[in-house]
Write a structure and sequence with these properties.
The protein has 344 residues and is an alpha/beta fold. It has a domain of 179 residues. Helices cover 53% and strands 10% of the residues. Strand 3, helix 4 and strand 4 form a beta-alpha-beta unit. Helix 1 runs antiparallel to helix 8 and helix 12 packs across helix 13. The longest helix has 37 residues.
């Protein structure tokens, strides 16, 4: 997985702010009081819709909620938009205008009243976001033309504006953890030094599968963006509290299994394609060899060993493990003779 891919950020953003309690906590912590006081947050509901077009998909991902607003209880849309780029887009108002037009055009098409949209841009890139009014795009601008320029705002949360201490003071469960991970997603060294802070105050209840699932989602995101070696990962996990470390280790084991399987499948596919070009019979043989080599290279020997031990602990036979992981029986038996997390 490359840090340049938007997918892990997108997945974790939706896992975090897609949780209603975290969305409410976020709104209370970051929106102006004059807005928060008029939102009936007890009636906040996920819209289960996305208004991101193919053109906007490279810029944003979105989470949409509906919420009554003001004394009249007018329904508005609250849209959380994750900025994908590691540096600010030059004209965010233009992308936002396209996005809001998609929403209003759909409402008109469905013969619904058009609803106000409260757009919240969530940014965790490397460069600071310099927010400015839409009309400043057109400087110099004659005063007589000002009334013809659309005037609208967006709420920006640039995580670089907030210190780790300020984020850690947030009272909502998991919100501080999620924001710290997102804030430092581009800085591997930070996680090596601050794992205790990042994963602090995590209270895992065995009887709450949703909590456990979200903690697992946090660790999957962490493993994807850091790409630490097994040694580095184990060292970081040793710093965590016992219940959190337990979830972290089980999540990592599964993460390694999936990564190894993906590596094997991609390697097999690539090798098979090359082999087919050179001849069916010879290609099949080379494709198998190249697929195996590529998969082992992606997972590396230690990850293969972890996957073998995980499957064996779940009751799989040696022959079944060998078939599932595209290993020989001898390789599986050798891995089982070694310690699961031992060094090479």
């Amino acid at each position: 997985m490359s840090i340049t891919s938007n997918k892990p950020h997108d997945e974790f953003f939706k896992a975090a702010l897609g949780r209603k309690e975290l969305a409410i906590a976020y709104l209370r912590a970051f929106l102006p009081d004059e807005i928060v006081q008029k939102l009936k947050l007890s009636e906040l509901k996920p819209a289960n819709d996305s208004y991101i077009t193919a053109k906007l998909r490279k810029v944003f991902s979105d989470i949409v909620y509906t919420c009554p607003f003001g004394d009249e209880g007018q329904e508005i849309l609250i849209t959380f938009l994750l900025e994908h780029k590691s540096q600010p887009v030059k004209y965010p108002h233009i992308q936002l205008l396209q996005y809001e037009l998609e929403i209003w055009e759909l409402q008109v098409k469905q013969k619904e009243p058009v609803k106000p949209v409260l757009p919240i841009i969530f940014y965790h890139g490397k460069r600071k976001w310099e927010k400015k009014p839409f009309e400043e795009y057109f400087i110099p601008l004659d005063e007589s033309l000002r009334k013809y320029i659309p005037g609208f705002e967006y709420h920006l949360t640039d995580l670089s504006d907030f210190s780790d201490e300020e984020i850690s003071m947030l009272k909502a469960g998991f919100l501080a953890n999620a924001l710290l991970i997102l804030k430092h997603a581009w800085d591997k060294e930070y996680f090596q030094k601050n794992a205790v802070l990042v994963f602090s105050r995590i209270d895992i209840h065995d009887d709450d599968p949703e909590v456990k699932n979200f903690v697992q989602a946090m660790f999957v995101y962490f493993f994807k963006i850091t790409e630490f070696s097994v040694d580095q990962t184990m060292e970081i996990m040793e710093q965590l509290s016992k219940p959190v470390k337990k979830v972290a280790k089980s999540t990592y084991d599964r993460f390694v299994e999936m990564g190894l399987k993906e590596g094997l499948e991609k390697g097999m596919e690539k090798g098979m394609e090359k082999g087919m070009e050179k001849g069916m019979e010879k290609g099949m043989e080379k494709g198998m060899e190249k697929g195996m080599e590529k998969g082992m290279e992606k997972g590396d020997r230690r990850r293969s060993r972890i996957a073998v031990h995980n499957l064996h602990e779940k009751g799989f036979l040696v022959e079944e493990i060998a078939e599932a992981l595209e290993l020989s029986v001898e390789e599986v038996e050798k891995f089982l003779e070694e310690e699961k997390y031992s060094e090479e």
